[in-house]
Amino acid sequence: MAAYDFKGKRALVTGGSRGIVDAGAEVFAVAKTQANLDKLKSEIPSVNIIAVDLADWETTRQAVEKVGNIDLLASLDKSLDVNLKAAFNVSQIVARDMIKRSCQEVRLLICQA
Q1: What are 40-45's contacts with CB under 8 Å, separation 24+?
Q2: 51 exposed, middle or buried (CB, 10 Å; 0-12, 13-18, 19+)?
Q3: Where in the chain are the domains?
């Protein structure tokens, strides 16, 4: 039995080609690698899979809008590690050094390559 019961809810899981458990929600797994999503679909036939590069704002927006109403949003830890925590951790380390050197401003630039 799942720790949570999300029956009747619609869940969007980013970076979701691995590590998904059945908690009763209608799940939309979003990830970049189609092969990983196909494997997930073979393991959990009820999951809806969406291959999209989450770093691309426009294609992500289009994919999410096609899904419709979402009740739950889950970003798996690996996705957060790469996309959010890395920038946060590095900025904290660099900013501390900049403060020690009396830099007057700290700017975090995030570029879309």
Answers
A1: 40/16, 44/20
A2: middle
A3: 1-75, 77-113
Question: From start to end of 3-80, where are the E strands?
Answer: 10-14, 26-31, 48-51, 72-75
Q: Which of 47, 23, 25, 26 is nearest to 36 (CA)?
A: 47
pTM: 0.66
Q: What is the pLDDT along the chain (113 residues), one digit of tens a residue?
A: 456 677 888 888 887 666 666 667 888 988 889 999 999 999 889 999 999 988 788 898 899 899 888 888 887 666 666 767 767 777 777 778 778 878 766 666 665 44
For the record, the structure tokens of 76 come out as 């798996």
CATH numeric code, 1-75? 3.40.50.720
Q: Which two tokens stand for residue 71?
A: 């009740």
Pairing state between β 48-51 and 26-31: parallel
For the chain, the distance separating the N- and C-terminal CA atoms, rounded to the nearest angstrom, is 43
- How far is 14 from 82, CA to CA, in rounded Å? 12
| DSSP conformational letter for 74 | E
